[in-house]
Each structure stands twice: as structure tokens, then as C-alpha cells.
Task: structure prediction
Amino acid sequence: MFKEVYIFVAGATPQIITETIYALAQRDPPVYPDEIYIITTETGRLRIQETLIEKEILKAMQKEYGMPDIVLTEGSFIVARDGDGRVISDIRNESENESIGDLITTFVKEKARDMKTRLHCSLAGGRKTMSFYMGSALQLFGRPWDRLYHVLVTPEFESNPEFFYRPKRDRVIECRLPDGTIKRLNTKDAEIHLAELPFIRLSGKVSFKKSGFRELVEEGQKEIDTATMQPPLIVNLYERTINIGDIFIEMVPMQFMIYTALLRQKTEHCRYRERPYCLDCTDCFPLISDLTTRHALEEMAKDYRKLYRDQPFKAEDLLNKWHEGIQVEHIRHNISRINRIFEEGIEDVTLRPYYKITTVKKYGGSRYGVRVEKEKIKIEP
Result:
């Protein structure tokens, strides 16, 4: 069971909070909040406290519909602050707009880290830019089970200062029309609909390291551009061919065998199989000493046999030549030759880093691997 976490952006219309809670409570099965957070300005906080808390409107709805306890505390309010740490009364300039964007993004990111929670995010309130930031933050960090909503209310009741939810017992409220006349409305005529909005989920597909909204967007765009530009890498052992899109690469069997071994690290020994993308992960990269063991040689010899399918004795000669495994210097020499082949064979310098053998310093030594996405690799047969 998920912990249900409601996140709102709100300004001077606290109604969107009760209307959303009401709409989710009417679902089958009903959904009730375990935690509520309201990202707002100081003006919005005071308005919400005055209506939902001091006038006990939230408590009245809870009691009328037999909902579990719904409590707003000081910790429920996430109030925007400017660069000097002062609370923002309203969003009036570019700097304050950027501050609220960073706040919304950081808060959603933090809440999305807990895999036991489900986020219910409403973009119905606040300034239009606040709604944009809420939707964008969920695109960046939302999980498959998180939800994004916009509450839709019958126009005469929308933003009406006397209407917060549809009560069980009909009552009459007043509405001021554009021409200044007063119209009496029956609450039984009000309709509240919660539109669930689809959104593209980048969480787990893009490796975000930055914090500010603007930097996150730039980082995400770079990652997407990089991921989509990688042509598939097709290795055919029987034909001794390597194709990168329409690029043809040739190697001698020893180099072919070592390169294929590093590709198999990604396709067969990934530590995070549930992750569809590798991005900057290099945890499958082996130490060079891992490639020099007898066991590693026996595994690589399986591909060597396929390379010499008409000459099976070649694999036996390889195993007999390197009784204890291939020497470190021999591996390094062949890695250098492989990288030279890719540098000469791939004219596009932006592609080379994904298909060459990369060296990374981690876990007490140099590790070697290929950065191309694992889903782009196909080893035949």
C-alpha cells in the first residue's frame, strides 16, 4: 500500500484544495491523503489558513463525508522565499518566478525519492507559471504510479468564495455576475470533476544531477539528445561484422573477442536490470584483472569458437596458449588497437565516445567498458 501524498500549488483560491480532496474521496475505491503539502506564497498561506483552518471548512467536509482525519499543520505549508530568504507575498518579477520554480521542482524531487509514496499533484491553483512548474517537476521526477490532476468545477461555482465542495445537503449560495447582479445558486447543481492529466515520465530514464529548474531542463535535454542519437550496435560473430547504424567496423578475431566480452558485460551482467537505461552508470565495467583470469578466457573462448566456426581447433590453441589467462599487457594493447579502429572508422566525433572502450577510475582501479546504451546492443547469433 502506498502512502498517499497530496501536493498542491495554490494562491488566493483555497477551494482547489478541498475540491480535489473531495473529488478523490468520491472515487471507487476512495483515495484519502496521508500527507498534504501546499506550495504557496505568504498571501496564499494566510488565505488558506483563514478559510480552511480558522473557519474549519476542511474539518466540516471531513466530518460531513466521514473522511479520515485531514490535518493541516505549519509543516503542510511550503512558502516561497526569494534569494535573500524573505517570504514572497506574490510572484511579481522574474527572480521570484524562478525561485518558486526551483522550490516546486526541489520539493517534488525530494518527495519522489520515497518509493513507498504515491504523489497526487494538483496544478489547478496559483499563478499559471506555478501550474507549469508543477507539471514539469512531475515530468522530471514522477514515477509510473504518481498522478497529476486539474480540478474542473461548474463555471458559476468556480472560485466562488462560498463554495469549497459539494455538500450532502443542498444549500443556497450567492454568485455575482459580470454585470453586478446577484444570482442565487443551489449547490446540488454544482459538478466537480477531476481530470487526470497524462505526462511524459523522465524519472529513471535521465540521470539528473543539477538542482535548479532551468539547469535541470538543460541537463535533461542534453541527456535526451544523447540517448536518441546513438545508432544500434549489431555484432555478428559468424560473419565477423560490427555495424553501428550504417557504419561497418572490421577487427581481427582477438580484438573482436575482447570487445564482444565488454558488450556482454552490459547485456548479460547489468546490476540494475530493472533500469531501462544506462546513462552514466558504469557499474558493469570490469577491472582489467577480471579479463585476465582463466575463467574470463574460457568465457571469451565461447565467442572465439563462433568466430572460427570452421576451425574449432583455433579456440583450443587460444586456451592452450594462455594457461592462466590473457596477460594484462596483451589486453591493454588490444584495447588501444580497438579504440584506434573506432577513431578511424567513425567520422562523427560525437558518436565515438559511446562505442570506443572507455576507462574509468573507480573502486580502487581502472575499469573498462563501452558506454553505448545496453538496449542498443545486439549480438548475433
